[in-house]
Amino acid sequence: MNARALHRPVDARAAKRPASTRPARRWAAAAAVVSTVLLTACSPGPVDIAVPSPAPEVAAACAPLVQALPSKVLDAERRKAEPQSPLTTAYGDPPIEVTCGVAAPAGMAEAQSQCFEVNGVGWFAKEVTNGVIFTTIGRAVYLEIAVPNKYRPEANALTDVSDAVLAHNKLITPCT
After folding, report:
1. Reduced to 3 states, what is the DSSP secondary structure of residue 110?
2. How do residues 7-19 score in pLDDT, each as one tens digit?
3. If you placed Cys at 73, which of 91, 106, 109, 124 could pair as Cys (CB 3.0 to 4.6 Å)?
4. Are strands 88-91 and 76-79 parallel, antiparallel or unpaired?
């Protein structure tokens, strides 16, 4: 030991702790910082979702519907959408995207023959490259749910949202 080390002030608390616990506490603190940084870096950020421009009465009907959607769909947590809008939300990673107030999708004119029901809600399904886009049929407003292939069978997502649709999207024409 050199003379300088002998004259260093002693931390009374550190001197009372066994030497073996000091490094463990430093490692625990370092591990906590690293895990917080990793969780923040790995958490998905907001989802970019195009916001439709529906008529004011459609937007007014969509806001409570989107708000009433569950906190989870297919066990995927609800996420923020960008830009923020009362017409959109998302779940999970990759995101299940929900948009209310969209226009009727192409093929909807023939949709009555392609309509299927999930828990009392009629849906039109359109397969796309990375999943399926479902749109409500026979309701006051169109609600669209884009479900990626990761969540196969994609239609299971509809069971999680059906209660909100039944409560906040008036039935006009039943699915046949």
Report:
1. helix
2. 444 555 545 555 5
3. 91
4. antiparallel
pLDDT of residue 84 exceeding 60, the answer is yes
The pair of three-digit structure tokens given for residue 65, joined into one six-digit string: 């519907």
d(CA 130, CA 143): 19
> CA 124, CA 17: separation in Å to the nearest integer?
68
Rounded to 5°, the CA angle 157-93-133 comes to: 40
Dump the DSSP string for 112-175: HHH-EEETTEEEEEEEETTEEEEEE-SBSS-EEEEEEGGGSSGGGHHHHHHHHHHHHS-BSS--
Q: Which helix (H) or strand (E) holds 68?
A: helix 56-68
What is the Cα–Cα distance from 166 to 68, expressed in whole angstroms? 11
Mean pLDDT (the chain) is 82
State the Cα angle at 156 between 151 and 160, rounded to 5°.
110
CA pair distance 147, 158, nearest whole angstrom:
10
> Which pair of tokens denotes residue 109?
């004119």
Amino acid sitting at position 32? A
What's the Cα-to-Cα distance from 118 to each of 4, 25, 31, 33, 79, rounded to whole Å? 78, 54, 46, 46, 24
* 8 Å CB contact between 141 and 54: yes
